């Protein structure tokens, strides 16, 4: 990739508790509370310019010092010195920059506990939406570990107080979601002690009491659960003059009626989100082997406000999404605005939050990219420039090279090697199982050709069946393929690679079929034309489209080659479409068997 990337600074900050900072893991002496408040304000608005007036109002409120602007400048000067101890006196600060009349704190490559918390909470919610409750619970536990008491402890001023209230709500909501997930899993890991402590600290928070009632209900302690309701009702009526809300009343009625099963989970109340209709980042894919170099390449390009979108592309099924998510996981905390994913399941995007990372997934051609962005196909370039102008970094993921979009940084994900493919299968099945039948494993790996999605499908199918012999499994696959000509398309390959072929028009499908019938070797454009199935102009257009879609590769001008599994798909598609091998005049340097549509073949043979 042709980009520049500064080495990350060895800085860490804590906001989810006392405001603290570390340089190379050594604590930084930040000084008085007002200076910590200046730092916290800049971190909480990282990526945005804050004026001295805004800092004065937020920290001192109605009681500013005699020379407020000078006080801010002193705090900024000291912060610059302690945060970058090796910086020369007149060298521009990389962390705390002056922009116009204000200041901007650049968090690229810097760790902030609050950003990590939000990133993991978002990943947990996305995992839960996918049904991965165990993963969601793990992410929430990890997120909550970042907290150390009350956020922004000891900071003065209205800004800190407002943020403390909002951050407490984020923390309580994440904890409540964790308890809810563990209850739905019927797990023994419900954090009961922490739940009881929070009930004491927040005696009017109804959702915590409802969760406590659910815990007691699942333990068969109905009387105690009803006593919790009675206690809270009395407190609410006495202290606030209100009755319990509908969720608590429903919980009480359910217990009184002795319903056998707990009610459905409580509605998740998400933390405030500047763009709630942008789906959150689901966290890194669990199946990832042998991708360190390309993951690092992509991660290095994902910097806040990057001026060029990044494209991760490769053969359909090769694992572009897994690579992209792994890269995002490394850098997500750089983006205070969060990570948002636009995919087939997401709605149209809203305005991007400042300093966010936008991931556009499943892009198989420009029309899909336009649909994801919610614009007309001829407005894609402008749509991509819009987020860049607003400081949003864009990552595009899919099987298309998008060659007409010239202003992209591109990273290609190549098929796994045989060793990497073996390691991916071992991640799901264990080395011992593979080593008992190495011959059939090597044959399965060879057949798959390094497509991670196919290897994962095999591992997921075999994992719950530890008694199955791999040899029997592979033999059964071969028998299914021999018995049913459509099996390879409909059941084996269509779920993984079919969407790469669906947009092809009739002519492109014909070129795909006749090219697939040319054999496993590298072939030329002239050989496709020699079949008589398409004209030279059609062959050029269609073969280049297949290259754009990563269906075929072009190692040198005018020469092409298939991924083995995609060629098998093309051969099967040829059989279904009525395209069959047809003998033509010998072509110099090529085979004497070509392919053409059946009707044309019969006409030529009759002639």
From TrEMBL:
Q: What PROSITE patterns does the record point to?
A: OMPR_PHOB
User: Which organism is the protein's source?
Assistant: Pseudonocardia acidicola
Return any one Pfam family short name: Trans_reg_C
Q: Which family does it belong to?
A: Belongs to the AfsR/DnrI/RedD regulatory family.
Q: Which InterPro entries match?
A: AfsR-DnrI-RedD_regulator, BTAD, OmpR/PhoB-type_DNA-bd, P-loop_NTPase, Sig_transdc_resp-reg_C-effctor, TPR-like_helical_dom_sf, WH-like_DNA-bd_sf
Name this protein carries in UniProt: OmpR/PhoB-type domain-containing protein
**What CDD domains does UniProt report for this protein, alphabetically?**
BTAD (cd15831)
* Domain OmpR/PhoB-type, residue spans: 1-107
Cite the entry's keywords alphabetically: DNA-binding, Transcription, Transcription regulation
User: Any idea which residues the entry calls the DNA-binding region?
Assistant: 1-107
